[in-house]
Amino acid sequence: MSTKRFESLSALIREGLMLRVECRCGRVVLLDPGKLLDRSIAAGGGHLISKVASRLRCGDCGARPSHFGPG
């Protein structure tokens, strides 16, 4: 059995996965990596999940994600 490391939004798109983002307040959302990639490129950002997730904020409490990964 192998494990895959997903470091880019492109890898999630290729595998047909969503990006799961969790906040310490308990909110969990699944985001479309294709839309995130389009927005990130338009804003001059990168395609790495860690870079994109570091710019996200919780819609409820405004905090940065406590955990993110494939979902």
Q: Average pLDDT value?
A: 91
The biggest beta sheet, please? 3 strands, antiparallel
Strand order of the largest sheet: 2-1-3
Low-confidence stretches: none
User: What radius of gyration results from the CA coordinates?
Assistant: 12 Å
Q: What distance separates the N and C termini?
A: 19 Å
Number of domains: 1
Protein described:
The chain has 71 residues and is α+β, with helices and mostly antiparallel strands. It has one domain (9-70). 31% of the residues lie in helices and 17% in strands. The chain is built from three helices and three strands; from the N terminus they run αββααβ. It has helices spanning 9-15, 33-42, 49-53, and strands at residues 19-22, 28-31, 67-70. It is globular and about 30 Å long.
Give a short summary of the structure.
By secondary structure, the chain is an alpha+beta fold. 31% of the residues lie in helices and 17% in strands. It has a 3-stranded antiparallel beta sheet with strand order 2-1-3.
